[in-house]
Amino acid sequence: MPAPDDLFEMRRLEALSNTIFGVAMTLLAYNLPKASGLSAAPDWTELARTYAPHVVPLMLSFIIAGVFWFSHQRRLAMAPQAGRGVVFLNLLFLLSIIVLPATNGLYGNLRDSTVVAVLYGLHLTVIAALNAVLWLLALGGQRHFDTLAGAFLPVVVFLLGTATAVVAPAWAPYFWSLAFAAPLLGYFSRRRREA
Questions:
Q1: Could you tell me if 63 and 124 are in contact, meaning their C-beta atoms sit under 8 angstroms apart?
Q2: How many domains, in total, are found in the chain?
């Protein structure tokens, strides 16, 4: 255990993380097509053809970032102090969030590409794995299986989705969307334990 003067108050990291998540989630929309690429009087078909391929990845990435923001906030509240190693691991986690608009932009423009779909899936897996490791550290050996199940489910789901992207990139988002079940899994596990 770190000495008291080596502990870092996580509320400072919380302020930084709120800013990082807010900026990253806003920048997800940066790669949407511009109106200048449309005809002077676009019809519904042209709008759908232009925007639909970009809106689905944007919504997926926004919701994924939101779920990880929620998890991050809960984790910081559970462990209000941490040593330098945990702080640096949190910064690495936040770095993986900062990169999300870039991989989302690639995926939104080239989602039929196997390489791009796998890259996006690997990025989601890294975010989920860092989150899971941080939960393990925050719990400090306590056996909160409901919390750990909710933290590790996205890792498994993103790995399955990434493996699917290798052979069928169009099917990968369906697997990745299953990660949204993680908060529900944790909720139902807690209710069952409390009953």
A1: no
A2: 1
